[in-house]
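User:
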Amino acid sequence: MTLRSVGPPRVLSAADRASLCEVLDRVLNKGAVVVGEITISVAD
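Assistant: Predicted structure:
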């Protein structure tokens, strides 16, 4: 795997922001496999 620099971090505008769900959808659609654990808590 080769890493390359893409420049300094930048602030995203509201139009550029994506939710975690959208990012995971894009990554998984490209064939990547994500392994992990999620805990969802709901307050009463």
